[in-house]
Amino acid sequence: MMKYPGNQITLIQxxxxxxxxxxxxxxxxxxRLVAEGAGTDGWISILLGxxxxxxxxxxxxxxxxxxxxxxxxxxLRKYFGxxxxxxxxxxxxxxxxFAVLTVIYSFINIINTWLLPETRSYIIMFFFxxxxxxxxxxxxxxxxxxxxxxxxxxFWMPVLLSIPVREGKFxxxxxxxxxxIQPVLMTAKSTILSFLGFELAMxxxxxxxxxxxxxxxxIIANTISLVxxxxxxxxxxxxFSPDEITNYIWPTLNIVKPIQIPFLERFEIMFLSFYxxxxxxxxxxxxxxxxxxxxxxxxxxxxxxxxxxxxVVLIILTYFLSVEYKQVEALxxxxxxxxxxxxxxxxxxxxxYSFIFSRLKGRKKL
Amino acid sequence: xxxxxxxxxxxxxxxxxxxxxxxxxxxxSKDLNYNLTIIEKLFTKTPDLIIRRFYLNQTGQPAALxxxxxxxxxxxxxxxxxxxxxxxxxxxxxxGEPAAAIGRTKKAVLWNDIVxxxxxxxxxxxxxxxxxxxxxxxxxxxxRAIEEPQTESTIKGAHQGFIETSKQNIALIxxxxxxxxxxxxxxxxxxxxxTLVTMLYLADVAHPEVLxxxxxxxxxxxxxxxxxxxxxxxxxxxxxxxxxxQFQISERPDAVASHILQGRCALVVDVSPGVLVGPxxxxxxxxxxDDYSTRWISxxxxxxxxxxxxxxxxxxxxxxxxxxxxxYELLPLNLIMSVGESRVKVPLPPIVEAFMMEIFLxxxxxxxxxxxxxxxxxVGIVGGIVIGQAAVQAGIVSNIMVxxxxxxxxxxxxxxxMDMSAAIRLLRFPIMVLSALLGMLGIVLGMMAIIAHIxxxxxxxxxxxxxxxxxKVSDFRDTIIRFPLxxxxxRPFTARPVQRKKLNWKGKNKKSK
Lengths: 366, 513
Fold this sequence. Notes:
The complex is a heterodimer. Chain A has a single domain (11-331), classed as Amino acid/polyamine transporter I (Up-down Bundle), CATH 1.20.1740.10. In chain A, α1 packs across α6 (140-153), α2 packs across α11 and α5 (121-137) packs antiparallel against α14 (304-320). Helices cover 72% and strands 0% of the residues of chain A. Chain A is mainly α. The longest helix of chain A has 43 residues, at 72-114. By secondary structure, chain B is an alpha+beta fold. Chain B folds into three domains: 2-137, no CATH class; 166-282, no CATH class; 293-456, no CATH class. Helices cover 46% and strands 12% of the residues of chain B. In chain B, the strands form three sheets. Chain B has a five-stranded antiparallel sheet, with helices on both faces. In chain B, a hairpin with a 5-residue loop joins β4 and β5. In chain B, α11 runs parallel beside α16 (418-438) and α13 runs antiparallel to α14. The longest helix of chain B is centred in the middle third of the chain and has 30 residues, at 296-325. The radius of gyration of chain B is 30 Å and the shape is elongated. The N and C termini of chain B lie far apart (91 Å). The mean pLDDT of chain B is 87. The chains are: A mainly alpha, B alpha+beta. The interface between A and B is large, with 40 and 31 residues.
């Protein structure tokens, strides 16, 4: 049973890897996206999005429970054979790589807008590559420890966001469902991007020490993310007027602006810099998935070499390719759409197939 | 070749090392004179080797006592070996052995053993007609008295420190742990130095995996010599490319004893006053023995102060650089005015200014360290006050920079472990470069790299970042804040003890009726 000795993660690490992956760039734009769709009722859409994510998560756990010692990539090979399984695995590797790219480009874009307008993006990428290499190269255990630590290390950030509530007006939230239930339902779609990240449970599951708690853990992880999303969104809704909020591209950052400490005038500089930690816990799991998958699919000895190559490619890419905000938005929209297929539809299909597969196998045995 | 060998080793020496090696595998002969010529051949040009020939009083056999002067206790040799053998008749009645009044004696047959023990300070008794030699433990070399270690002084703790003899050091530790379960394992490390390394641990507390790992690493060593514990640490640590110390090297018996009691294992190196303790974690370098002897509230305050000073020592100069060169809007207007005013005259970019001052400070520290105390103080005054003040007036550095530099210096002095303090002082330079390149974001990137490194580091396969990552809530009672001692009822997870519970407390100190 011990397929990965010495490389296991605890339940807490499992929860925080998933939460860390979910809370990333999505949260910066989430209040605007839901406000555009459903006005100040947008927070209900987040609840719906959470319901969807939890359902999909439970489906994933169901699939994984059938193969407790396999990661997604070995399952795919088992189910679909070498070539088809390899092709689907490759699609997953590309998806994870795409996620890394999107998150990094989004963050660099934000940094260029808010903090360092002159700095070239490859410089940021170059210095960012070292810490994420250190974490990802040491495997799943260190990824788990890192996410665990960063969760507590950045815990003050969402808490701090509640300061502007003092000047907020709760009337903005009323009346509930002022435009009916339809827009709220439709808007749930735009929360998909924010909740993406639980699909990587397909990678973490076999490493989890206490597998019985996997379902509980993934629900807790989704719920922590939900609390953070709801908190930030509600603070934005209360602080900004319903019309104002859609004018800001990143309302979550605008909410930091009014925060002032006697010895710090512009607090968002600190906030945004520390936001890099939050970003890193999104980037590292996807990065790890991508390079770990590569090493499995191509039968490499370790995932360090693909990791090095990937990071060098990223630095080169950021050197030659810089993107505008419009393109970043397009990237994250694509990611949302593709992610819907990968995280919500794919597990359901896989679950159905796994039923058929075990049936077929059972028959063969007879 | 022969001529050179003659020059180097002396006239009667053996031709080559190979010949000597062959001889060392042989047994000694019955003939005393033959044996003594062999000893003379093996130890040419060794004036401190003493060969005392005499006749045994009882039997009249010719005998010889061989020892190295300086490594041996002269009094013991004269009064307890030579005198009884030369003038008394107590040649062991039942055993037939020469009965010198020495506690620890051994018998040896091989030349190799005899030579090794001779070099360790034993005296060798050779008797004509016997095919074995008797070795007497007459070790006694110049050593200093036990005094308080200078690098780890304490206010309330014990004022004893280790010295350079491992037997004494082990005794000092044993005074704190008079327990049968305190086990020791001896290793000889170094082909030439043959340093005795003793591993101490509590057999029923320490984790067998940790002990096995430590043992494996020591046995794997094949080096010429180990002069200092620091050398040993570098050979057996997990990651020698890390800037952080992965073992604690302490000169305090009470500190080492408390580590052993937590379940860690200690290595006593014979020639060095430093005792190595492992496995360690990052946070354990911010604790001292004094923390447990002062009241828990003030101890907790001091500990949090140390962690705060960690951040100041690492990031304050870079925060200054980031603020001045990137985020001038970060500070409120009044503050930025005073910072700006002091920088008006300074022609250098902030990174150059900061680097100059920080490197100057490191020089000052290092030069004061090697000088005798009165001169060292003078250097401090000249460097700190005169140059600091003069540099500001000359307009080379700003006032604020001088404040920043002195704050970082003070903060780095608070960190109790010398190794850790050195690591942190060094780490602030790359962070300064990062902050000059990317401002606040650069500082955060540096912080992230440090965190990532600490988390991925292991000491004897035990996570270095614990109890933060992996999270061990029970260890937080004794990390940043030290809870009252009765509430720390378990040994820390980070020492990986097998037996976790260490005390039973039922709250009995309340007024009993």
